[in-house]
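Q: Structure for this?
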Amino acid sequence: MIYRKIFSLGSILVLMAVLLSACSAGNATSPTDKTPTLAATSAENEGNSVVDMTPTTASSGDIIPGLAELSGDVVIDGSSTVYPITTAVAEEFTKVAPNVRISVGLSGTGGGFKKFCPGETDISDASRPIKDSEIEICKENNVEYVEFTVAMDGLTIMVNPENDWLKSVTVDQIAQLLGASSTITKWSDLDPSYPDEEILFFIPDPDSGTRDYMIEIVKGSSGDEDLRQDDNTTFSSDDNVLLDGIENEKYAFGFFGYAYYVGAQDKVRAVAVVDEAGVAVLPSDQTVQDGSYNPLSRPLFIYVNKASLLEKPQVAAFVKFFFSDQGGSKIMSDVGYSMPPTGTYESNLDLLASSIQ
Amino acid sequence: MNSDQITEREFVYREKIELRKKLGQIFYLTLVLAILFGLFMLAVLLIDVGIEGGPWLKSQIFTNYHSRFPEEAGMKSAIVGSLIVTLLTGLFSFPIGVGAAIYLEEYAPKNKLTDFINLNVNNLSGVPSIVFGMLGLMVFGRMFGLFSPNSWLVSTFNIPVNDGSSGGLIFNLFTIPWLEIHLPFGRSMVAGALTMTLLILPVVIISSREAIRAIPSSIREAGYALGTTKWHVISTLILPISMPGILTGMILSLSRAIGETAPLIIMGAFTYVPFLPESIWDKFTVIPIQIYNWITLPQADYRIHLAGAGIIVMLVLLFLLNGIAVFLRNKFEVKW
């Protein structure tokens, strides 16, 4: 009786093991099963696109020959701000190069460099330029890299729609409001004509590149090394929490990325920022891209491991695809970012070509 | 006089019994409210998720990968990843957890060292999961950098270092490759499953010990009285009798593991994985990471509808696991 129970337990374990190996075996064979169909559909797509594209521009097949035959891994990690761009380009790239396996992680700009500099990843997404301390680690590990600008992102200063007094702010005012040494707690502290009410601040938390960017702006104006953290301040890494706070508090003040603002224009009001010439500029696709929304628009980067570019053809092909008319420029408006200034992608391609040689 | 006293007492007693009955009813109502609170919250969750995610629960969830268009986005690789990581976690944690429990209950001498181990097993079950993630990254993911391409260990012993789906150390048995090991484990499903094993091990050990302790000592003594060895008593009496309890604890722990996000993100699980794993050494993502990622995206279709559909898939998986637990428990149940 008891032996039978042990036997059945054993058989269940064996079954689980078999199931597991069957799982992995099935997966091992599945790519080869799928390749013909996928290749067939992509070939069809390519055929179509060739027919469509030849009159106007060169087809993607011409830009990078032999995409369909490429295989191997491309490992990407880094900023959650750049993540939507990279995954969208990867999605397009996989349509023409079905055997290349691109995986993208989400560990933040700093976390991405922690994996990039020891050589664990091929490409690192970054919402700010690489820091000196990170360059040091890359050097220690003999990791050389190439920096590419892929998109523009704007910080948007936001208030509640019922706020009818704050029309525009200067960078100095932003620094006064958000700096760690700030003594402002009421709107009337900023300007006596504003309401005598407490300001509630909604600020991204320390893991976010958006916050790092704001700290740099504040530092440049008032020298503060960090943003305020008192009872009036709410931190969150989740932009939706910040959005809800500003939407529901009449006396709120906060900021986050332009892409999130675009999806929430009916809930909060963006505040125009006064640039160096003294002109108040509202963030829009136009002003972010041409750099006139200044200094609160910033470039987003990808850092590519040079050894990966030289040794892994799929990495080079992916980067090349990124800057072709099938890549970044095709998906940018879908994911809510702006293209960098005209000519950036062309010079990126030149930089890539010189890096590969 | 005497009879008067009795009636007076009786009167007081009757008055009190009314009060006691009322107290009893209030207590009963409180208990019903307590259970209703839990059920109500569960119902709200299920209805909310059902309304938000139900209409989006289409075949694309199971056949597609993440896409920048919400209508085309799915979580195929996350579902497969969750299933394989959970199975691996079960395979790793069952022998280790049950073995530790048997040692602690049947073999361990009563001394300071055993007390120390007991204390730590109990403490470990309260450690935040993210700590296990960091441990997993250092120990399994990077292996303290021992196997980085330029380390002395690799150059001395000429170890094939491979952090990917293919390659690695392959052991052959009569030309049949039966074991493949990649060093370091990297961001693979094995590393993820081992991290999860660490996470649930304390609970597995504690629940297995409870199950073993619940066996009446008369059973053990009857076994020894027949002249059998300790090993025989454990393998033929203790284990089969305690199996329902052990399996229950095991599956409940696995249910916890299937919903964990933080340790896997720290350990290095990816978020966007548009391919199915080719082996257990491949890169992976899991359902809760995919849901978390969708919730952080600005578009409402991802945040509300697709995340809701993902939650439904995960709940169904959880209920299936719990169903298996109930089935196994009934199957192995020993009637006295």
